[in-house]
Amino acid sequence: SSIQAAPMLHKRFVGQGTFYSVGLGACGNTNNDNELVAALNAPQFGTPANPNNSPFCGRKVLINGPNGSVTCTIVDRCEACKDGDLDLSPTAFAKISPLSAGRFIMHPVIVVTGASRGIGRAVAEICLKTFNANVLAIARTESALNTLKAYAEKELNTNERVETVVGDVTEERVIDDAVDKCLKRWGRIDGLVINAGVLEPMATIADVNVGEWRRLLDVNLLSAVTLLKKTIPHLRSTKGRVIAVSSGASMKAIHSWSAYCVSKSALNMLIRCLALEEPDIVAVAIRPGVVDTDMQFLVRTGGSKVMDEQDHSKFVGLHTSNQLLSPEEPAHVIAALVVGGAKKEYSGGYYTWNIEEFAEFMRKKIPSPQASTVESGE
């Protein structure tokens, strides 16, 4: 029957053709047909199996997209999981897909580190809800990861597309556990969002505790190396994507931030080296701008004693003038890049989140002069 056959389409990969498999919602969800929950790029499967066996077949639906709307016919649909196969021309697909130039599969498997709050949490939620991805979330705070599962249950009527690992990314066993869970649950890994990071110690080089310096490097840099080493074989096979959350501090020295600045600069170079060594993996470093997160709170409250007064006042001023970005703004771009939007020609680069090339991935267009002119500490 159609209900039995349709889920097999989830395993198909990108190709060229007339028929496109488009996710209309998560399993058990009853999203409106007018909403394109997951924009998927041309998985070819030829003539659809068992057409007209589903009560949805032949139904006309209007799909809205960033470049216009198209009316299309459902040629096959799984009643159980609400994924449908639509008869679309390439031109029609380009109109409805915000990522028509990207590589997409039905439910990409994305690993997000530092997923309990801030940018990491926002990326995980957007990957789940907007891009219909499966997400493996890593964080130290179990309660925060439980709320991510609750979010999926509420928004998607299922938490089957979320796996979590509680632990410190500096511990190899935590990374091993994450990889094992991905492979056992979904059989693949399609992308990484390297987001885990800390700012402290904030101190001059003359005064800093070297042990704290080493700890920061373990979190901000070496955990990324471990994660990459464990996942590269799987990312090769899926031609996956790696998005590292960098910082404007990787390019500009900030007084008393030496450990953080060095770690983010090294992270940029790690991405460049990965892109050079692994041509089948697209690797990108993203500067997210100055974002309203716990790290910025730490800068405002703890930085006054050690930072340059002008630098500290600048960060405080962005907060008091309500110019800090919400985590969701850069997170939407990061999520779009990791699930398929990052093009091959971007690989190895360091980019600010709101450059013109990423405009199609933005949640909404907002005036954010600070995102392109202020050297960020995040």
UniProtKB/TrEMBL annotation:
Any one Gene Ontology molecular-function term assigned to this protein's record: oxidoreductase activity, acting on NAD(P)H, oxygen as acceptor
According to its UniProt record, which protein family does this protein belong to?
Answer: Belongs to the short-chain dehydrogenases/reductases (SDR) family.
Q: What is this protein called?
A: 261_t:CDS:1
What keywords were assigned to this record?
NADP, Oxidoreductase
User: What superkingdom does the record give?
Assistant: Eukaryota
The keyword Nucleotide-binding is annotated on this UniProt entry: no
| UniProt KW Metal-binding keyword | no
Gene3D superfamilies found in the cross-reference section:
NAD(P)-binding Rossmann-like Domain, RlpA-like domain
